[in-house]
């Protein structure tokens, strides 16, 4: 039994204990969430959103607006939102689980698992490089001319790192997509099936999907495009499932945050895999990069958190220093990640020291600064009520 699995059992048992009297009331939470998110919705014409906070095992949920403007369907706790790049946190969990089961090592080279890339610069990258965006210039999006898996391999065989670059952080759907493809291959399954069978189902995330089942389509929100306000959903694309393809609701995402906080009983190999995804690998100016998750020192200023979530962190290469040893300490750390598609915007963060986490899901691609600022303020208000 691992250290984490023992801790999970002890902490799960503790959730039955009455919360401190200072815990924020449901009425207070609804008022605070409305104060923070109603202006955001008005400013950016957000049709609907769901916001949740987990604090010491207690869940608070705020929903507002419409999942479907045309049908006038209200957002509820059952509403499914596109997670965008929050999906990547599930991708790396699958990869870390494959390592736990000795199906691969995160130190393996890409070319060991994708033979067409053997001997190429892309093939020389490690799986951990893919998990931490250390690709030295891999593009953010799969190139438009790439239409299928063969096209991906052909393009990557010709790809060259940015000339003269050091070990830079280049946020890339293409590189993280490769990691998901390799991890699923290690399990002998297509990615969507591997993610469901190995991660989502064992974690009891029963309302999270790559492909939304027909019976759940009425709960699947429409996103609304910034440019023309058209109702849209994510379009199929190469490596889309691996990079940005999960849809989920606020309750499942709160459970996922609880799991990352160590506050839910899960199979020991998955607990160990999740712990691996938290380990810091490289350091940027604003945060330490773990496997997709970004690690900030806690407590931290709002300004530092916003700097780490600036659009430039996704669209421009950033200097990054490889740490001599992986940072395993989770005390004094806030973990965070944003996620977007053309019609949706989300954010998730958690602080193990405080046993608190926040999730925001909206069917508008709200600017990163606005969603992070409001979510962080709500997290702070819940903590303030405790103290």
Automatic annotation (TrEMBL):
The keyword Hydrolase applies. One of its GO terms (biological process) is antibiotic catabolic process. Residues 1-23 form the signal peptide. GO terms for cellular component: outer membrane-bounded periplasmic space. It catalyses: a beta-lactam + H2O = a substituted beta-amino acid. It comes from the Bacteria. GO terms for molecular function: beta-lactamase activity. Residues 34-381 form the Beta-lactamase-related domain. Its EC number is 3.5.2.6. Keywords: Antibiotic resistance, Hydrolase, Signal. Belongs to the class-C beta-lactamase family. This is Beta-lactamase. It comes from Pseudomonas kuykendallii.
């Amino acid at each position: 039994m691992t250290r984490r699995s023992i801790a999970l059992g002890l902490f799960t048992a503790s959730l039955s204990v009455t919360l401190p009297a200072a815990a924020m009331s449901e009425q207070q939470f609804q008022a605070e969430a409305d104060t923070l998110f109603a202006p955001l919705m008005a400013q950016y014409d957000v049709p609907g959103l769901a916001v949740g906070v987990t604090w010491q095992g207690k869940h608070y949920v705020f929903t507002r607006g419409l999942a479907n403007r045309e049908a006038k369907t209200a957002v509820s706790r059952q509403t499914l939102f596109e997670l965008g790049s929050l999906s990547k946190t599930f991708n790396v969990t699958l990869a870390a689980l494959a390592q736990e089961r000795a199906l691969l090592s995160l130190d393996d080279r890409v070319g060991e698992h994708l033979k067409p890339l053997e001997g190429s610069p892309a093939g020389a990258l490690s799986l951990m490089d893919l998990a931490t965006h250390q690709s030295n210039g891999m593009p953010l999006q799969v190139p438009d001319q790439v239409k299928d898996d063969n096209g991906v391999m052909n393009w990557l065989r010709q790809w060259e790192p940015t000339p003269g670059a050091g070990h830079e952080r280049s946020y890339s759907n293409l590189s993280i997509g490769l990691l998901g493809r390799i991890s699923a291959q290690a399990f002998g399954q297509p990615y969507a099936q591997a993610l469901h069978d190995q991660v989502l189902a064992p974690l009891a995330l029963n309302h999270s999907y790559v492909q939304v089942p027909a019976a759940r389509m009425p709960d699947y929100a429409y996103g609304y495009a910034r440019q023309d306000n058209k109702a849209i959903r994510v379009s199929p694309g190469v490596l889309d499932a691996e990079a940005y393809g999960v849809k989920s609701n606020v309750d499942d995402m709160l459970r996922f945050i609880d799991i990352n906080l160590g506050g839910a009983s899960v199979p020991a190999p998955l607990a160990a895999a999740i712990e691996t995804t938290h380990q810091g690998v490289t350091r940027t100016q604003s945060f330490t990069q773990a496997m997709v998750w970004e690690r900030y020192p806690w407590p931290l200023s709002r300004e530092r958190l916003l700097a780490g979530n600036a659009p430039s962190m996704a669209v421009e290469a950033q200097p990054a220093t490889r740490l001599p040893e992986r940072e395993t300490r989770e005390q004094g750390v806030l973990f965070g990640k944003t996620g977007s598609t053309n019609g949706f915007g989300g954010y998730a963060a958690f602080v193990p020291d405080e046993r608190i986490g926040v999730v925001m899901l909206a069917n508008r691609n709200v600017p990163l600064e606005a969603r992070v600022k409001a979510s962080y303020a709500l997290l702070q208000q819940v903590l303030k009520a405790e103290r």
